[in-house]
Design goal:
Elements lengths: L2 H5 L5 H8 L10 H11 L16 H10 L1 H18 L4 E7 L4 E5 L4 H6 L10 H4 L3 H8 L3 E4 L11 E9 L5 E10 L9 H22 L4 E7 L10 E5 L5 E4 L1 H9 L10 H4 L4 H6 L7 E8 L2 E8 L22 H5 L3 H13 L6 E4 L6 H11 L7 E5 L5 H9 E2 L12 E2 L1 H4 L4 E5 L6 H13 L1 E2 L8 E2 L3 E6 L3 H6 L5 H7 L2 E4 L9 H10 L6 E2 L1 H9 L5 H15 L4 E2 L18 H14 L3 H12 L4 H8 L3 H11 L4 H4 L1
Parallel strand pairs: 11-18, 11-19, 12-15, 15-18, 20-21
Antiparallel strand pairs: 1-2, 1-5, 3-4, 4-5, 6-7, 6-10, 7-8, 9-10, 13-14, 16-17
Helix pairs in contact: 2-3, 5-9, 26-27
Length: 647
């Protein structure tokens, strides 16, 4: 199709397909035809044009995978199960996120031909880039499908035959999709039917595993029609609060109740959905039962109801809320007995509910998010939402949609109903912008405008959305220095820092002993510290601050015998050992050279931790409670290089 042909495409979908692609055998009223239409009319793609593979860089991919760590851990089991059955037959198996980026894959032994076709981790397959294709079109349509050979928009993808199923979360939002693709399939599209059914089955298994993991401590129901008991795609899962209201469900349940019956599932009482007595079901928790099976009649079908009951009764939620909020320490508990913190919190209480933005500063691990939540709970907005966005953990290409959102139909691959951004979700409550110093420059400008005008335009919106949010931001960076180096907008800084709350590092707090005792008490068991252990905890520099201390105490508690914590129970970083994998003179020269360049507390503590862990990046990242990609970024920022890379 030429550029002139693009300009002369008819607006009518049926005429569009009939006039331009009769040889493809595409139904003019189907999902694939609509995808072709979007590829041409919205994305201005040329099926015969030069194709550039859009693949994330290694660093972008690491950040992306860290962001989806929990999803990958659960979905990986389904990915492996599907791969065992189809990879030996020449299929590549791919897992993507909701934006069409492949996060994991399983390929046949002859990998080169598959990677050359773009079947690789980090590749982007949304329709705006690749036109009609298995992953992008499945995400746009929100339903399973096979895109076979010439149904692909780009000529370069004609040899692919892709069977794909979407994956939904427990709130019925797209989480990604599962894809099985073969190359150079000579058979008809119908030959891929069984492959598609396998993909659908494993996608549903991933959804159900994710549901059970999320609601493992909640009452949950499993509904299976007796005449269809072996069909995993039709098993309906519902999670309930203690009042019998639905707080989550798998996609099969949303289809059965919302799409087929028009019932708004979330928030509905179970006795409105089933002929079941809620009080009798919930009373089973008092008897220590772990599960029960019921049989009931529904729509002339016999249904098995499996009720899963947690080991302990679920927490009682506040009135008029669907799901109980987790308890978080308040401002008084967080400030402890440290005079500096008590003074800062005293000032903070005076500015609450005055419309003054709050900036929290402090080293990594000092509890910035905990303070942000406590500020929200202490304000009159505590009944509203608390919405957090980590500006450092989300790839730059996604921050804009995460922050500002979009409306349905704004771009291909997006949720058909659109997505509210963090700003809009926080309306009436508190928006917490963590690591604000890592926000890209162009988004700083847009955020400044939104904060100044108190309204935003989501992508594709026809009218602005009025905003009423309390903004709390946090950073471990020196924003004043970033302003001088043009890395952060000065006008945005003054918009965010109506009041600054500086959190002291753990080594600077005067209440360390009391803090240690409080954290120990919070572990739920009677624990006692040897005096040598308390002294070691008191004198350690704690580069990871409270987060590191808490991880250390959890580790020590797990190893304690009869509740007694001695030196042997402490993790390795509290045992000072010299690295043994390099000559002493080289280590000293390296450390001196690095230390001489470092004028930042975070940098010095980071270097100390790396030396203690013998430059084990994974161990240091775990110690600080951050992703490896974040640790590498911090090392790059401070110019910290491993010794074997210096010499």
């Amino acid at each position: 199709m030429t550029a002139h042909a693009l300009e002369t495409c008819p607006n009518d979908l049926t005429a569009f397909v009939a006039d331009h692609f009769p040889e493809r055998g595409i139904r003019p009223d189907g999902l694939i035809a609509r995808s072709w239409y979007r590829s041409v009319m919205e994305h201005r793609l040329d099926p015969h044009g030069a194709v550039e593979k859009n693949i994330l860089t290694a660093s972008e991919l690491r950040e992306y995978q860290a962001l989806h760590e929990e999803y990958l851990a659960i979905a990986g089991q389904g990915l492996n199960g599907l791969a065992k059955r189809v990879v030996p037959a020449g299929f590549a198996v791919l897992l993507s996120d909701e934006h069409g980026v492949t996060l994991d894959s399983r390929l046949p032994r002859q990998r080169d031909t598959y990677t050359q076709a773009g079947l690789i981790v980090g590749a982007r397959w949304d329709e705006s880039i690749a036109g009609t294709n298995g992953i992008g079109t499945t995400l746009a349509a929100g339903q399973p499908m096979t895109i076979h050979r010439q149904e692909h928009f780009l000529v370069s993808n004609f040899r692919l035959s892709c069977s794909v199923a979407p994956i939904y979360d427990a709130q019925n939002a797209l989480r990604g999709c599962l894809n099985a693709t073969c190359l150079n399939s000579d058979g008809p599209k119908e030959a891929q039917y069984l492959t598609l059914q396998l993909v659908i089955m494993y996608a549903r298994l991933i959804e159900n595993a994710s549901f059970r993991q999320r609601y493992r401590d909640r009452l949950s129901l499993s509904l299976k029609p007796r005449d269809d008991i072996a069909d995993l795609a039709n098993e309906q899962l519902l999670a309930l609060d203690e009042r019998g209201r639905v707080i989550g469900a798998n996609h099969a349940a949303f289809v059965a109740y919302q799409q087929e019956r028009g019932i708004d599932l979330l928030g509905s009482r179970i006795d409105q959905l089933l002929p079941a007595n809620v009080d009798e079901l919930l009373s089973l928790t008092l008897g220590g039962a772990r599960g029960v099976r019921l049989r009931t009649q529904q729509d002339e079908a016999l249904v098995d109801i499996g009720l899963r009951i947690p080991a302990s009764p679920p927490p009682r939620s506040a009135p008029n809320r669907i799901e109980a909020r987790p308890e978080h320490p308040d401002l008084q508990r967080l400030s402890g007995g440290d005079a500096r913190l008590l003074d800062g919190v005293g000032r903070l209480r005076k500015v609450l509910d005055k419309g003054i933005p709050i900036l929290i500063t402090g080293e990594t691990g000092t509890g910035k998010e905990a303070f942000a939540r406590a500020i929200h709970q202490a304000s009159t907005r505590h009944t509203g939402p608390f919405v957090a966005l980590n500006c450092a953990a989300i790839p730059e290409s996604l921050i804009e949609s995460e922050l500002f959102g979009y409306r349905g139909g704004s771009f291909t691959g997006a949720n058909k109903k659109g997505m509210k951004g963090k700003l809009e979700l926080a309306n009436g409550g508190t928006l917490f912008l963590d690591e604000i110093g890592d926000m890209p420059a162009h988004l700083q400008t847009r955020l400044l405008r939104v904060l100044a005008e108190r309204e935003l335009f989501p992508l594709g919106a026809d009218a602005p959305v009025a905003l009423d949010v309390q903004v709390v931001s946090a950073t471990h960076q020196n924003l004043a220095e970033m302003i001088r180096s043009k890395g952060f907008r000065e006008d945005l800084f003054y918009r965010l820092s109506g009041m600054t709350l500086q959190l002291p590092a753990l080594r600077e707090r005067s209440d360390r002993d009391a803090l240690i005792d409080n954290l120990l008490a919070g572990l739920g068991t009677e624990l006692r510290l040897d005096e040598t252990v308390r002294e070691r905890l008191h004198t350690h520099p704690w580069p990871g601050n409270i987060r590191q201390l808490l991880n250390c105490l959890r580790y020590a508690a797990a190893l304690a015998e009869d509740g007694r914590i001695d030196l042997d129970c402490l993790p390795a970083e509290l045992h000072q050992t010299a690295p043994a994998d390099a000559p002493l003179a080289l280590q000293e020269a390296t450390s001196s050279a690095l230390a001489a360049r470092l004028d930042d507390d975070e940098a010095r503590h980071l270097l100390a931790a790396l030396r203690e862990r013998q430059w084990n990046i994974s161990a240091v990242a775990e110690q600080f409670g951050i992703a490896r990609s974040t640790l590498y970024r911090k090392m790059k920022k401070h110019g910290i290089v491993q010794p074997n890379a210096l010499y």
